[in-house]
UniProtKB/TrEMBL annotation:
Its EC number is 3.4.22.34. This is Legumain. Has a strict specificity for hydrolysis of asparaginyl bonds. Can also cleave aspartyl bonds slowly, especially under acidic conditions. Involved in the processing of proteins for MHC class II antigen presentation in the lysosomal/endosomal system. Also involved in MHC class I antigen presentation in cross-presenting dendritic cells by mediating cleavage and maturation of Perforin-2 (MPEG1), thereby promoting antigen translocation in the cytosol. Required for normal lysosomal protein degradation in renal proximal tubules. Required for normal degradation of internalized EGFR. Residues 343-435 form the Legumain prodomain domain. It comes from Clavelina lepadiformis (Light-bulb sea squirt).
Length: 436
């Protein structure tokens, strides 16, 4: 009798252990992930008024780090001119919410300043360490067939491109790089989160659904993304709506359990100013967030930050900052100074719109109707080479896009001229004539 009780107890204990093992095995098998996680996080802008992009990016780094991804597997690209800008009242500190912690501390400076380029980004992503030798930290993603890759990007965008500090990354170059990575078996699954205006246009009708890639974007192919969290002390926006939505979700949720799909739904719900989109292989979104942002439970135990809704379209940030500065100015001289700057900004915007429209008028040999059409809808960008060349010429000859970001709001007209079948040489010569 005693013997059989002992036998039953041992049996129960054994089967429980087996059950746990089986359960863990099942869990592993379901997700089938025992590789490494690699990440690239990029802020594509510079300038203090673009504070938010570097704050978002630093925050993304902190999420990955808090969840146990070692620095060797994270590459950070940011201009790094904001934390120690003389405009920053808290030197060496960046925050991503008015009540949030410093996100700048400990961020590796892999590639800063002029090293933040689309070419370097693609070399880092595709693991081309030879190309990066002698540049920045030289760190690249050394991912293999069992590994996961996570990419986060925050900056300005326009149809078919995302901006870097002094040039642009075009949608076909990004998608080609990803396809090459797939062919070379450089990942098991790859996830991209992209914050930019018209960010959906980077993947729409382009990102393949059978190469194990899942992407979400802050906006659909034809709308702005939105900045948020204006800070009166720092006199700038601290975050972008889509970005802070997923970042705060990763800070507060148990990402070892939450799926990418759930995070997408939460982010989509919180981002009520633009349309958060998903592209690629959506079956990947049933995977656990932690398999891309770090599997270790975060040691942080902060209460969720209070919600603040003060979203403004990203392209209008310079205007809103100046308007707030006028409101907040304590002296008459300061008020006047900011009013003059605001008037100047509005004048530049009028000049840029006028210039683009005049280029369209000239390219179409004075066809008023066609000119009007090219200024109305977003382009489909069937001829990327034409678009690229026209944007480049506009950047060289008319307005440098990194200094005149409003240009990103207008270059869609150049895309429409290409779509209308106007030869690229004609568009380029019109640009040179108008902007000479
Ligand atoms: C977005 O949601 C917040 C919180 O529910 C709300 O306060 C805000 O007015 C909403 N904004 C828009 C544009 O609907």
């Amino acid at each position: 009798m005693k013997g059989s009780v002992a036998f039953i107890l041992v049996f129960v204990a054994l089967s429980q252990a087996t059950f746990v093992q089986q359960f863990e095995k099942l869990n592993r098998a379901r997700n089938n992930f025992d590789g490494k996680i690699w990440a690239v996080v990029v802020a594509g802008s510079n300038g203090y008024y673009n504070y938010r992009h570097q704050a978002d990016t630093c925050h993304a780094y902190q999420v990955l780090r808090n969840h146990g991804i070692p620095d060797e597997q994270i590459v950070v690209m940011m201009y790094d001119d904001v934390a120690n800008s003389e405009e920053n009242p808290t030197p060496g500190i960046l925050i991503n919410h008015p009540n949030g912690p410093d996100v700048y501390k400990g961020v590796p400076k892999d590639y800063t300043g002029k090293d933040v380029t689309p070419e370097n980004f693609l070399n880092v992503l595709t693991g081309n360490s030879r190309a990066m030798l002698g540049t920045g930290s030289g760190k690249v993603i050394k991912s293999g067939p069992n590994d996961h890759v996570f990419v986060y990007f925050a900056d300005h965008g326009a149809p078919g491109l995302i901006a870097f500090p002094t040039s642009e990354l075009y949608k076909n170059d990004l998608n080609n790089a990803i396809e090459t990575m797939h062919q070379r078996k450089r990942y098991k699954q790859l996830v991209l989160y992209v914050e930019a205006c018209e960010s959906g246009s980077m993947f729409d009708n382009l990102l393949k659904t059978d190469i194990n890639v899942f992407a979400t974007t802050a906006a659909n192919p034809s709308e702005s993304s939105y900045a948020c969290y204006f800070d009166e002390k720092r006199k700038t926006y601290l975050g972008d709506r889509y970005s802070v939505s997923w970042l705060e979700d990763s800070d507060n949720e148990n990402i070892e359990m939450e799926t990418l799909h759930k995070q997408y739904e939460v982010t989509k719900k919180k981002t009520n100013t633009s349309h958060v989109m998903q592209y690629g292989d959506t079956t990947i979104s049933h995977e656990i967030v932690g398999f891309f942002q770090g599997e270790k439970p975060s040691a942080l135990n902060n209460a969720p930050l209070p919600p603040i809704y003060d979203d403004v379209p990203s392209p209008d940030v310079p205007i809103h900052i100046l308007q707030r500065k006028i409101e907040l100015a304590t002296s008459h001289d300061d008020k006047l100074k900011y009013k003059v700057l605001l008037e100047k900004e509005q004048e530049i915007r009028r000049r840029i719109s006028w210039t683009v429209k005049t280029i369209a008028f000239h390219s179409t040999e004075g066809d008023k109707e066609l000119t009007e059409l090219t200024t109305l809808s977003k382009p489909s960008l069937n001829d990327m080479e034409c678009y690229k060349a026209a944007v480049q010429e506009f950047d060289n000859t008319c307005f440098e896009l990194d200094d005149f970001e409003y240009g990103y709001r207008q270059i869609f007209v150049l895309g429409n001229l290409c779509d209308a079948g106007i030869p690229v040489e004609k568009i380029m010569s019109s640009i040179r004539i108008i902007c000479h």
